[in-house]
Amino acid sequence: MRWNMEGALSMKGGPLKMSMFAKYTGLIVALFIPIGIVFAYANNVANRVIGTEMRASNISQLSFLSSQIDSRINQTMDFVFTFSKDPNVQKFNGLGVWDDQYDRMQTKYMLQEKMELQSGIVTIWPVEFTVYSQVHKEAVTNSSTDAPYDEDYLARNLSGNWIYDDQATAMGEAKAFRWLYTDSFGHQNKLTGSNLVVQASFGRENIQNMLDTYKEGGQGDPLFYYKGRAPIPNRTSSAKLVTEVRSYLDGLSLGETMQQTIRLDGDSYLVSLVKSPLLGGYLVDIAPLDQVLGPISSSRNLFYLSMLLLFLFGTFISVLLYRDVQRPIVKLIGGLKRVQRGDFSARIDAKANGEFTFLFYRFNDMSRQIESLIENVLKERMRAQEATMKQLQAQINPHFLYNCLGYMINMAQMKENDAVVAMGYNLSAYYRYITRMEKETASLAEEIKLIVNYLDIQKLRNGRIHYTIDVPEEMLAQQVPRLMLQPLVENAVIHGVGKSFASGEIRIRGEMSDGLCRIFVDDDGPGMDPERQALLNQRLTGPLEEDMGAGLWNTNQRIVHCFGTRSSLHFTQSELGGVRSEIVWEMPKPAS
């Protein structure tokens, strides 16, 4: 039987080193981790490629828009160059005296007609032209408002570059881009006193028209920006976004082109910037990265959600396997281990599914049969041990009796009548108790009385012996096996006090706590070394050996059989210096 049990569990818990639940969950994780890593890498590559393409596309589109604006400005400037050489323009600024009023009006009308014709060629890019005659201090324009001649205005704006006025001028001019041209020999772009000045101007609406057209073909939010000045946004832009981007750009040192990724209000934006060579400003495109990359992010999140659902589903399957397979196996292995440790009362809850129910029933039957067999064998061994004990007592007690009778004879010869009476009284009480075999148990109070009789007898024979007994009153009513304490006290007297002429104290103490009763028997004898003490405690729990005293082993077996596996007898080092014998037993629960 012992061989079969060890063979069945020879793996020593090996199947539990890694449970099936842990294995399947680990396999699921091992499967999902590389998939997640590969997908994350692919998603990162896609985001990087799309981001790179988006950056290149934005710069390319902004450069194309800048070239379109520059193309229209160049057309305007070419017209100004050509228009300044027109005979009627020269006539308007001529040095001669006008022929008559009609001719003067006719010349102005022809100039306005040409300027109107040029301005109306492209409706998206209307331009206002003005011709200033320094000779006659007069101006003619195709604007809806008259253009007065202002020498200071001409001197201030005649720089040869396009100028953006974002403030209304004293002349009532609206926000506009202006370019003034004059070409006097040796004094280009300077007023010499007889110059003809031609001005081309267009409003910010022209830029907005181009920005609106650009926005219709993309996902960005374009604007035209001068550092430190209010930008020109497209007509459908967000004022808040434009303000935040302007504040951001004002703090940077700008080059010819630039791209930055910034976060505004929790959203990511790609800011692309290209400088316009003719206007000196910057075309800026604000592209919302979250919106552009939104489909990719949605696809990524959907994939991760699918992975999570698959993982949860796989975990659910593992949980089912754990509940229906592993947990029954763990119960079965636990039951087998309990049987291997000698607990033949082990039973397995038969609430299981399928084949495990049959296994549990068969295990319970096997355990029940083994328990019954072990109990029968144990009872037979106990009967044999009791017979051996009775035989030993029959051999020992007469010797003990002879010694006591010899003591009484000696005391009688010495006329010590009190010692003879005391010995006779204790001896009769002692033998009256040990010869009563009708009951297997007695109260702890009766056991204590027996110990007092025994120790008084030993004290009369050996004057060095003195003892103390301290047991709580509520503990004295406990029912214990008969002669449970006598072998321990006898062991303390013979192997403790009897082996040293300097010792003689025996202390018996009881306590109750945590549902357990404890009795301590201490002596101040020479004690035992730790190895011998550990060996004695180990042999108490094993089978009876031939070279081992039967009294202590039998006492431990009777305690365990009477009170359960939480009860025991074991030996430790005493605080008196000798050996402490400790009996622990579980208090019986009161009947309900």
How is this structure best described in words?
It is a single chain. The protein folds into 3 domains: 85-206, Beta-Lactamase, CATH 3.30.450; 219-292, Profilin-like; 368-586, Heat Shock Protein 90 (2-Layer Sandwich), CATH 3.30.565. The protein has helices at residues 2-8, 20-84, 87-92, 101-119, 151-157, 204-216, 239-250, 289-292, 294-340, 355-413, 417-434, 444-461, 486-496, 530-541, 550-563; strands at 128-133, 138-141, 163-165, 176-181, 183-184, 187-188, 196-203, 221-225, 232-233, 257-264, 267-275, 282-288, 441-443, 466-470, 479-481, 505-513, 516-523, 568-573, 579-586. The strands form 5 sheets. Strands 2-1-7-4-3 form a 5-stranded antiparallel sheet. With 592 residues, the protein is of the alpha+beta class. It contains 15 helices and 19 strands.
Number of strands: 19
Low-confidence stretches: 1-17
Q: Structural class per helix/strand content?
A: alpha+beta
Secondary-structure arrangement, i.e. CATH architecture of the largest domain: 2-Layer Sandwich
Helix percentage: 40-55%
Supply the CATH superfamily name of the largest domain: Histidine kinase-like ATPase, C-terminal domain
Characterize the overall form.
rod-shaped
**Tally of separate helices:** 15
Main sheet record: 5 strands, antiparallel
Domain count: the total is 3
Strand content: 15-25%
